[in-house]
Write a structure and sequence with these properties.
Blueprint: E1 3-6, E2 9-12, H1 14-25, H2 35-61, H3 64-75, H4 80-101, H5 108-126, H6 139-152, H7 159-166, H8 168-181
Antiparallel strand pairs: 1-2
Length: about 180
């Protein structure tokens, strides 16, 4: 996830989806950006997808109280054997990914410190603008919206969520994007 299905074509990964839609639908949300703005957008996109995402994932799969909620949400529709075996296998894979990426090698407070710094950077960059790059949404807004909805709106309680909720402009932005897109 995420993925889209367009006819017989399935496209996974938000970056590939955006590029696919750009070509197939002739829509380029970044058309009005300067080269510098495109570079800033790309840098922030990489920050959330290659850093903040892992903190969010860790908080869902590695913190015991959140794992119970996450397990029920993902595997609750399966019978007891499928739920327990499937969730054990999936969690083992996620743990291995988090170890390989490096985030799970840190202490809990260090992990949330990384996430909070990313949230601070997002909040500072957004400032009072309606969208990250100005008056119109761009592809970065699609990425940021998806991640912030997952951090703020998901019924997973964590230090990351609490901190994100304390940043008023990020919660207002999440509401704006959720109303606009959903």
């Amino acid at each position: 996830m995420p993925y889209i299905v367009d006819g017989d074509q399935t496209v996974a990964d938000s970056r590939l989806i955006i590029e696919y839609l750009k070509v197939q639908c002739d829509v380029d949300l970044n058309r009005g950006l300067t080269p510098t703005q495109k570079a800033q957008s790309l840098a922030f996109e990489r920050m959330i997808e290659d850093d903040l995402f892992w903190v969010m994932l860790w908080s869902r799969w590695c913190q015991p109280h959140n794992w119970r909620v996450n397990k029920k949400a993902i595997f609750g529709c399966f019978g007891p054997v499928g739920r327990n075996v499937g969730s054990w296998l999936a969690r083992r894979k996620v743990w291995a990914d988090l170890w390989s990426q490096g985030i799970s090698r840190l202490r809990d407070d260090e992990i949330f410190q990384i996430g909070n710094r990313d949230l601070d950077a997002l909040s500072e960059f957004l400032g009072g603008k309606p969208y990250f790059m100005g008056e119109q949404p761009t592809t970065f807004d699609a990425s940021a919206c998806g991640l912030l909805i997952n951090v703020i709106s998901c019924p997973i309680e964590s230090a990351l969520k609490a901190y994100a909720e304390s940043l008023g402009n990020l919660t207002s932005y999440r509401e704006l994007m959720q109303d606009r897109c959903f």
